[in-house]
Amino acid sequence: MALEVERKYLDADFARVRALLEQQGACCKGIHFESNDIYDTPDNAFLRGHRLLRLRRQEYADRTDYALTLKLPAQTVNGFKRREEYETAVQDGDVMHRILQGQGYVLAAHYEKFRESWRLHDVAVDMDILPFGQFIEIEGPEEAICRVAQLLDLDRQPTSTDSYHTLHSQWLTRQHKTPQRSFAFAPQEADRWRAALGLPDRKKEN
């Protein structure tokens, strides 16, 4: 079990933050494409109980990783989101999908993002590109998050403790679009980001 403590920073300049990370000697963990499948019971017990069961596929330039994650209900304390999380690596995503279905879970939602991950002073700094916006997520001890945010000139940026699902719902409302739990890139947009970020072309992989 791990306690996840995080805060999202909105409207940040990725290029400036990346330059400041490099100046501070941060370690870049690489860029990857994430494909996330959310599972639930047929009556949406996980959604109603504010829990999340997720099977994640992470595509790097040289490998693909899978992870199964259970997140328990989140709390917002002092402007930070705190949540218990259980996660384990998975060898075969297709097999785990069948196992989950065999246990009675159904695929309830799907979402995608591109993530550039950094590590600075034992704090994770993730620059996330989603179909509806770009965000920076910092995870670690509260004091360390504040210290790193100041080093990266993010301490005056607007922040959020909402999940990406909630931020997506808010975006849909502002755009007067139909509510939905899933969000994914259009194929051409995904290919453009893959090329810009140096990730393998999806067509070549298949």
In short:
With 206 residues, this protein is α+β, with helices and mostly antiparallel strands.
Explain how this protein is built.
The chain has helices spanning 14-23, 45-48, 93-102, 142-151, 164-174, 187-197, 202-205, and strands spanning 2-10, 27-40, 52-59, 64-71, 75-77, 80-90, 106-120, 123-130, 133-139, 159-160. By secondary structure, it is α+β, with helices and mostly antiparallel strands.
Topology summary:
Elements lengths: L1 E9 L3 H10 L3 E14 L4 H4 L3 E8 L4 E8 L3 E3 L2 E11 L2 H10 L3 E15 L2 E8 L2 E7 L2 H10 L7 E2 L3 H11 L12 H11 L4 H4 L1
Antiparallel strand pairs: 1-6, 1-9, 1-10, 2-3, 2-7, 3-4, 4-6, 5-6, 7-8, 8-9
CA radius of gyration is 17 Å
Report the principal-axis shape.
globular
Helix content: 25-40%
Total beta strand runs: 10
Hey, roughly how much beta strand do the residues contain? 35-45%
Q: What spatial order of strands do you see in the largest sheet?
A: 1-6-4-3-2-7-8-9
Mean pLDDT: 95
Low-confidence parts, pLDDT < 50 over ≥5 residues? none
Characterize the main sheet.
8 strands, antiparallel, barrel
Corresponding CATH architecture: Beta Barrel
CATH topology (fold) name? Hypothetical Protein Pfu-838710-001
What is the total number of structural domains?
Answer: 1
